[in-house]
Write a structure and sequence with these properties.
With 268 residues, the protein is mainly beta. The relative contact order is 0.13. The two termini are 35 Å apart. β7 and β8 (106-113) form a beta hairpin. It is built from three helices and 21 strands.
Length: 268
């Protein structure tokens, strides 16, 4: 593969940093082969991959095959991707803020454009797969000031959510540390010299190799990173990774050019 042949020869950003993200982005052969974002379906059997070339691939993990492939604008790259309404339809946002719905049984539908930001937005899908909540990583505003609800049910649309009233809402920065779903929803620790700690219901269960540790943002720091697992800084040093609904499979990419899927039924 052209990207794999070129990667070792790219310059380093400095003696202390192994990855020169600008060099990777500016080399089209390298950029086109990098997975810029990924998602795991709620059933844990499918993965969605967004590439620097604007290509979106949906794959069956169990059968190790691609089931759908789409081409978006080649000049833009996807910054987040989510499965919606099942395992064969996804919502994607590119670096210009264009949000598109893709499915093998319909033409791509662009449902609008959102303000883009150097830092990646945080997205979560409802349990029924019909709604996405999007929270941009603004450095100068509170997280609850710019939330958007993306509806996949019936009439596709996006709706800005008004911030809660200060009279009945107090944001917290130090939530209790626990996992839901009877302890089957994992939590990743963002620090650890040996690797990436994985917790279940507050208990350390195993460690993923350190190369899969995410890029942690603090303010505008890390804004040059354009792919991989990028998470906001949090005083608990914990974050919830992408996982199947029953918690048996998790997806991790860290700073790597492609993600891995860990089958926890084979580990725990």
């Amino acid at each position: 593969m052209v990207m794999e042949a070129k990667l070792p020869n790219l310059p380093k950003d400095s003696e202390d940093v192994e990855i020169d993200y600008d060099a990777q982005f500016n080399d089209r052969d390298v950029r086109n082969g990098i997975v810029t974002c990924a998602a795991l379906s709620l059933d844990g059997h499918h993965v969605a991959l967004g590439f620097g070339s604007g290509v979106i691939e949906l794959a069956n993990i169990d059968h190790q095959c691609t089931i759908s492939r789409f081409q978006l604008d080649r000049s833009n790259h996807p910054v987040w991707i989510e499965f919606v309404h099942g395992s064969h339809r996804v919502a994607v946002e590119d670096n210009e803020g264009n949000v598109t719905i893709l499915s093998h049984d319909m033409a791509p539908v662009n449902i609008g454009t959102l303000p883009n930001n150097p830092l990646p937005a945080v997205t979560r899908v409802s349990d029924n797969g019909l709604f996405i909540i999007r929270v941009p990583q603004n450095t100068d505003r509170s997280w609850y000031d710019s939330m958007t609800l993306i509806s996949i049910s019936g009439d596709l649309h996006m709706q800005h959510l008004a911030p809660p009233s200060s009279n009945n809402f107090t944001p917290t920065s130090n939530p209790p540390i626990h996992s839901s779903a009877a302890g089957r929803t994992p939590l990743f620790g963002t620090v650890g010299p040996a690797g990436l700690p994985v917790f279940f219901d507050g208990k350390l269960e195993f460690i993923i190799p350190k190369e899969y540790c995410p890029v942690v943002f603090s303010g505008a720091e890390g804004s040059g990173v354009w792919y991989g697992e990028r998470v906001p800084s949090d005083p608990t040093y914990l974050y919830s990774p992408r996982s199947s609904k029953d918690g048996t499979r998790i997806l991790s990419q860290g700073r790597q050019t492609a993600p891995i899927v860990v089958d926890l039924s084979q580990v725990l």
